[in-house]
Amino acid sequence: MKSFWFILLCGVAHLLLSSVAAVDTLGHNQTLTDGQTRVSSGNIFTLGFFSPGNSTYRYVGIWYANVPVQTVIWVANNQNPMNDSSGVLKIAEDGNLVIVNSTGLVWSSGVSIAGNDTSVQMLDSGNLVLSSSSNSTGYLWQSFDHIGNTFLAGMKQGLNLKTGQQWYIQSWKSLNDPSPGDYTDKLENPEFPQLIIRKGDVKQYRIGPWNGIDFIYGGIPLTTGKILYPTMYSDENEVYIVLKTSSQSIIARTFLNETGVLQDYYWNQQMGQWIDVLTMQQDVCKRYNQCGNNGVCDSTASTLCRCLKGFTPKVPQKWQLQDWSDGCVRQTVMNCEKEYGFLKLTNEVNLPDLLQYSVNSSMNLQECQAICLSNCSCSAFSNLQMIGEGSGCALWFGDLVDMRADTDDGVVLYLKLLPSEIDSGGGSKKKRRLVIAVTTSVVLAILVLVPLGWYSRRKARRDLRGGKCFGESMFTTQELGHEEDLELPMYDLFTIKAITANFANSKKIGEGGFGPVYKAELATGQEIAIKRLSKNSRQGLNEFKNEATLIAKLQHRNLVRLLGCCIQDEERILIYEYLPNGSLNSFIFDATHGSVLDWKKRRDIILGIARGLLYLHRDSRLRLIHRDLKASNVLLDNELNPKISDFGMARTFQGEPVEDKTRRVVGTYGYMSPEYAIDGLFSIKSDVFSFGVLLLEIVSGKRNRGFCHPEHDLSLLGHVNDCSLAWNLLNEGKELELVDPMIGEEYPKSEVSRCIQVGLLCVQRHPKDRPTMPAALSMLDTEDILLPHPKEPGFYTERSLHDFSSASDAPMASNEMSVTWIEPR
Ligand SMILES: *[C@@H]1O[C@H](CO)[C@@H](O)[C@H](O)[C@H]1NC(C)=O
Ligand SMILES: *[C@@H]1O[C@H](CO)[C@@H](O)[C@H](O)[C@H]1NC(C)=O
Ligand SMILES: *[C@@H]1O[C@H](CO)[C@@H](O)[C@H](O)[C@H]1NC(C)=O
Ligand SMILES: *[C@@H]1O[C@H](CO)[C@@H](O)[C@H](O)[C@H]1NC(C)=O
Ligand SMILES: *[C@@H]1O[C@H](CO)[C@@H](O)[C@H](O)[C@H]1NC(C)=O
Ligand SMILES: *[C@@H]1O[C@H](CO)[C@@H](O)[C@H](O)[C@H]1NC(C)=O
Ligand SMILES: *[C@@H]1O[C@H](CO)[C@@H](O)[C@H](O)[C@H]1NC(C)=O
Ligand SMILES: *[C@@H]1O[C@H](CO)[C@@H](O)[C@H](O)[C@H]1NC(C)=O
Ligand SMILES: *[C@@H]1O[C@H](CO)[C@@H](O)[C@H](O)[C@H]1NC(C)=O
């Protein structure tokens, strides 16, 4: 009896153990029925039965185990669905993986060499593999060889040159029907590989060719933040790309949807949704041959299509009506008797489609050029590879097809033209160089001398773009009176969307005057703050450029650092260092935080702000007036060091600081000096005024606007309902009544008193009475300087206070202002 129990227990244990161990495999004698699953060992992918969309049909497929939105990446019987749940997945007698239903075979892996010792395993890569225990030389069959609409890291896309086998992506018919749809994405032209998306046989979109390092995307910025990136493999047998993810833990896929749009998605765990980080065909210029033969598509130009230099619209009337389909023809018909030269197009267009072409990887550019000159139908040539200084030869014959403006991919194309056509039109902005005869050393505009791989290549390219936030055509720093390149990295919108989970509310850390601010993390782990300027904010392109240009040039420990920017589509985005403690606002005006700031800390903050402002006014290369200094624009770092931010309204001044008059009065009520609020006059002394207000707020812990002292019923700066002035307190020698109780009783009275006095000196009514920042700073810093007695400060009427207190943070244009300046009595 005992032995019976023992055997039973052993049996149960064995069963349990074997079922645990084999949870990702299906052995010879096992079956998987509808409702059962196999899960890869790392719990990444699930194999099982499912019904797509609204369909009631049953399919066997693979989906992500950890993604709650069922996302199927592969389907076995996509062409032969079952209409009930009688299906069974198992290893057949012949060793193949099969699906059978009550009447027979539904689907089979269909390999002929299978044996009777096969098993199938669900791998963490998403690959379902059939292997034989007696044959360890690879898989007998694998799902990765049968790509559906989803391309995963580790899959191959390409072709076997010997067998003709092709690995390609094919869309589903619809969300409800995983059978092969109209769209395919195939790797073509193996000698110079391109990816082509077709609807049926018709080309829709082209990525490439592969330049040895990367695909030429033609204007799509791929960034360091990219999640999936391709590597090309080729030998005499096979040519294919494999995607890699930037990190093992990233759940990402490339997906060809039912309308032929190729997208890169990654799963954002926090958001609980797929984020589209790269949609390939988002731009109208991505449509195949949008501008017709020999036309160039440029969605940033005023007219979408233009002809290549030396070409003219084939049917000018239609071209004028923006019907580009006929494309362009040569101004002068190619005549083999004539002598031709080449126009070098650097970073102007992508490489044309490979229709009539030839390539030779061992020719150099001179040989390439010689061939193109000698063959009458040759119309252009370029290097085949961009590695190093470039190598190989690619020749195009006849029309040049599917070209778009491309300033990002480092493409150099030599266009065959008559010398007269090359010379004409010298007014062109871009530098073009004439290459007529074969020169001994053809120097190519190659971005990096030593190929360091994809990443560094991308990075180098980005850096080389000048780190320019604004292309030359988009931006002239008018305020500065001269053009200057910004040493400011450009971030790509897709990256930003990815790291902010598409500007998710959960990532939002604040709302500035011009739009929300998000916190995010770069791939490097660095925390950043992303300021997304709202489309309807009053900060237009000018202010945006202004802010970015200005801050990019500012370097001071009391100024917030700008790390980059992004101008794409309608978006205007600034990327700053992230300061974990947020704004001063939340410390000084908040009962729970206020106690963090003792007097010493407050004094340090005041001095820090003063130094930052001094730097702006005097020491920076630019010399500028901030114009919107306030508590919410002062951020605090880890150690509560203040950093001035928000330069959207800043103005530079040249040479001697002068009063300037501005059409638009912008700023924040309560901090605005009277001469600025009323007459639109601003100078460095308007900043000094704002600094004074801020100083008094830091000391008192009270907002200037609307604040009345509980006992004396007085506002910090102005008469409101017979409130007395802080100034009155000073006159009565009771200025210490202003001090924030949060500071406690223990503080150096004379120092605080001195500080208040400096604050009041800064808010005097007449600009000329106010000290400059250097003077204010030394007054704060040095005990020995004797302070003048401040004159009465500038202030507003009761009515204006009332009117503006609600809209106080909004920028105001002068015509909306009704502030009245009362002469102090
Ligand atoms: C499968 O079943 C056969 C007979 O039904 C048996 O002889 C064989 O040992 C089984 N194999 C496994 C791996 O369980
Ligand atoms: C699913 O069915 C509903 C109602 O019949 C329909 O409105 C919806 O479009 C269907 N969804 C898909 C993806 O076909
Ligand atoms: C499934 O298909 C079979 C054969 O086509 C048919 O006899 C059966 O009625 C179908 N079952 C359902 C539930 O539609
Ligand atoms: C079983 O599958 C076959 C092939 O797909 C199909 O013709 C048949 O109707 C199915 N039978 C049932 C009962 O679903
Ligand atoms: C498997 O096939 C081999 C050779 O064909 C045969 O010797 C062996 O008996 C088979 N095993 C089973 C379990 O069918
Ligand atoms: C073992 O598997 C490999 C790859 O599937 C196949 O090419 C080979 O013919 C198999 N060997 C035997 C002995 O079945
Ligand atoms: C495919 O993707 C594009 C771009 O995101 C989208 O506009 C389109 O609606 C999608 N098609 C389907 C069928 O979901
Ligand atoms: C490529 O160019 C080299 C050098 O000019 C030449 O020897 C070779 O035949 C060419 N190959 C092809 C396929 O044309
Ligand atoms: C020019 O090149 C094309 C394409 O390679 C070829 O078919 C044609 O024969 C060449 N013509 C001459 C004159 O060499």
Automatic annotation (TrEMBL):
Residues annotated as domain Protein kinase: 503-787
Family: Belongs to the protein kinase superfamily. Ser/Thr protein kinase family.
Pfam families to which the protein is assigned, alphabetical: B_lectin, DUF3403, PAN_2, PK_Tyr_Ser-Thr, S_locus_glycop
Recorded superkingdom: Eukaryota
Catalytic reactions on record: L-threonyl-[protein] + ATP = O-phospho-L-threonyl-[protein] + ADP + H(+); L-seryl-[protein] + ATP = O-phospho-L-seryl-[protein] + ADP + H(+)
Molecular function per GO: ATP binding; protein serine/threonine kinase activity
Record membrane topology: Single-pass type I membrane protein
Every Apple domain range: 336-418
GO cellular component, one term: plasma membrane
Transmembrane segments: 434-455
Xref: SMART domains: B_lectin, PAN_AP, S_TKc
Official protein name in the record: Receptor-like serine/threonine-protein kinase
